[in-house]
Write a sequence for this structure.
C-alpha cells in the first residue's frame, strides 16, 4: 500500500499522516510507503514504514506528472489555496485549485493502475441561495471563487471516475475546528482562533455576529473520516462520487459558551468582537445546515459535542502560552 | 449593439442570427454588427446591419483572445463538441467544452467593458440519479463527459459574473427537436431523425424504447428564449446565473403518434426500431422531468404542442425528398 498525500504539509495532512502511521494499514493492506507532498516540503513523521517528503506545486503539470510517474494505490488531494486567499487573488486560486486538480487527474488518466483518489472538497461549494438544509443532491451554487473551484474539482473527479481513469471519492469537509497553530487566510480561520487563542492566553477577534452558525467538524473526526472514505468500495457510490462529510451546526455564541465552561469565565475577556464585512459576507454565504445521507449510510463519524472538541484540542494540539 | 455568436455555424446559431436580423435590435438598441464564428466559417446571412463570418477554434486561446480584442456587447457561446462525440473522444470534449469555455471567459476577464454572455448549457448536466423532477437548485450530477463539461462551464460563468468580469447567464437547453439537416454525433440526434427523415421520405432508426421520455423544445422557442435571456437584467438573477429553459416532456411513442397524425399513417413505416445500448445508456441518464421556476418567473416561452413543432418544421426547415 503506497499512499501519497498532496497537501501533506497542511494541518489535516499531517494529522492524517500520523493516523496512518499509527494504523500501519489502509484498505486491509500494510502501508509500505507514505509520501507527503506540499508547496514546501513537509517535515517527516515517525512510522514503521518508509515516509518521504516532496516539494510539489500542483499547478506545475510537469511536476505533477513526475510525482505520479510512480504508482500510488491511494492519493489524498488536500492541497488548496484557501477561501479568503482565492477570493483576494483570483489567478492564484484558479492556478492551484482549478488547474492543480486537473493536472492531478490528467496525470492519473493514462496510468495502468487506477488509484483511489480522496479529494477534499468543501462545504463552501454550497450556498444559502438554495433551499436549506443542503442535501447530497442539492446544487453546488458557490458564492466564492474557492467554492467554485472546489465544485469544479468534484465534477472532474466524478467524470474521471465514471470513465474508469481513477477510483475517486470527493468529500465536502465542514469547517475544521479547532485548527492548531496560527491563523491562516481562510475566511473560516477565526472559528478556530476564538477558541485556540484564548486557551493559549492570547487575544482573538471575532469578525461576525455571535448568532452566526457554522457547520463544523473536529480534526479528529475529519481525519478518521478521511481514512474511512479511502476504505469504502468506490463502486458502492454509484454514479455520484461526491458527498458531504458529517458535521455539527453550532452558533458562535454556543462555541464561546462551551469555551467558558471548559476554561472558566475569564477566558472570554480575550475575545474581542469587531465585524469584518468581507469575512462576514463570505461566511454568511456558506450553508450551516446539511443532511448527510450518503455519509450516514456509509457509517462515517460525526462530532456531537463541542466541549469534547475543545478538550481534544487542549490534550493534543495546544501550545504553551508565550512566555 | 455588437453581437458575437460563437457556434454561429450550427443550426441554433444560424436560426438565432436570422432572428436577430429580423428584429434589428437587442436589449433596446439597434444592432450594428453581428459576427458569426465557428470552427468552419459560417455562411453569411442577410441583414440590415453588418454581418461578418469568422473561423474560430475556441480551444485556441490566442484565437479567442484575438476575437475578443474587439468589444462585444453580447456574446452567445453555443459552440460545443456534442454528447456522443465527447463521450467517444474524451480529449476532444475537454479541449472544446472545458478549455474553450475557459478561454472565452479569460479573454473577457480583463476587458474594460463587461459583455453579456449567454452560455448554452444543457439538460445533460442533470441526471436521473437524484430526486425528480429536477429543480433549478438540484445538483448537476452529469453521467456523460459532455454534461460534466457543460456543468463546469456553468460554475465558471457564475463565478466570473459574481466577480464582475462578465454579465453571464447560463441556460440549460432541452433537447432541441426537430433539428433540420443531417443527423449529428449527439446521442439525442435520433429524436429529430425519427420525425425529420420520414417527413422527407427517408428511413430513420429509433435506438431506444418508445417508452423513453425526453425533455425537448422546438428550435423556434429555443431561439426566442435565447433572445429573451440576453435581454433580462443580469442582476435580477442574484447569485445564481444558471437555470433551465422551459421544455415539454414527451415519450417517443407520443412523438410518433403526433407524426402519424400530421403526416398520415404510412409515414411510420419509415421508422425502424433497433435498440442501441450506447445511445440508450446516455439518453436514459438524462432527466426528462424538470421544473423551471426561474425561467417561468422571467417569462420565458414554452412549447406545449408537439404537432405544432412538426408543422413548424415542415413550414420552415423541411428539405425536398431525394429525387
Amino acid at each position: 500500500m503506497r499512499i501519497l498525500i498532496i497537501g501533506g504539509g497542511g494541518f489535516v495532512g499531517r494529522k492524517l499522516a500520523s493516523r496512518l502511521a499509527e494504523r500501519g494499514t489502509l484498505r486491509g493492506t500494510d502501508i509500505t510507503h507514505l509520501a507527503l507532498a506540499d508547496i514546501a516540503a513537509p517535515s517527516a513523521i515517525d512510522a514503521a514504514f518508509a515516509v518521504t517528503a516532496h516539494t510539489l506545486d500542483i499547478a506545475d503539470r510537469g511536476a505533477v506528472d513526475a510525482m505520479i510517474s510512480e504508482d500510488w494505490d491511494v492519493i489524498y488531494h488536500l492541497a488548496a489555496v484557501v477561501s479568503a486567499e482565492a477570493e483576494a487573488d483570483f489567478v492564484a486560486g484558479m492556478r492551484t485549485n482549478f488547474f492543480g486538480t486537473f493536472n492531478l487527474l490528467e496525470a492519473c488518466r493514462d496510468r495502468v493502475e487506477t488509484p483511489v483518489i480522496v479529494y477534499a472538497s468543501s462545504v463552501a461549494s454550497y450556498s444559502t441561495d438554495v433551499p436549506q438544509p443542503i442535501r447530497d443532491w442539492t446544487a453546488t451554487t458557490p458564492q466564492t471563487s474557492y467554492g467554485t473551484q472546489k465544485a469544479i474539482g468534484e465534477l472532474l473527479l466524478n467524470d474521471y471516475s465514471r470513465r474508469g481513469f481513477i477510483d475517486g471519492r470527493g468529500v465536502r469537509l465542514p469547517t475544521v475546528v479547532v485548527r492548531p497553530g496560527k491563523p491562516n487566510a481562510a475566511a473560516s480561520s477565526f472559528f478556530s482562533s476564538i477558541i485556540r487563542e484564548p486557551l493559549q492566553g492570547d487575544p482573538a477577534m471575532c469578525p461576525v455576529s455571535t448568532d452566526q452558525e457554522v457547520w463544523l467538524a473536529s480534526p479528529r473526526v475529519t481525519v478518521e473520516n478521511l481514512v474511512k472514505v479511502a476504505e469504502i468500495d468506490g463502486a458502492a457510490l454509484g454514479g455520484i462520487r461526491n458527498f458531504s462529510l458529517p458535521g455539527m451546526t453550532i452558533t458562535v455564541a454556543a462555541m464561546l459558551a462551551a469555551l467558558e465552561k471548559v476554561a472558566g469565565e475569564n477566558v472570554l475577556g480575550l475575545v474581542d468582537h469587531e465585524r469584518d464585512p468581507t469575512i462576514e459576507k463570505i461566511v454568511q454565504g456558506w450553508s450551516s445546515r446539511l443532511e448527510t445521507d450518503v455519509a450516514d449510510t456509509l457509517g462515517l463519524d460525526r462530532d456531537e459535542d463541542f466541549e469534547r472538541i475543545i478538550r481534544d484540542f487542549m490534550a493534543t494540539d495546544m501550545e504553551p502560552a508565550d512566555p
In short: The mean pLDDT of chain B is 96. The first strand of chain B starts at residue 2 and ends at 6.
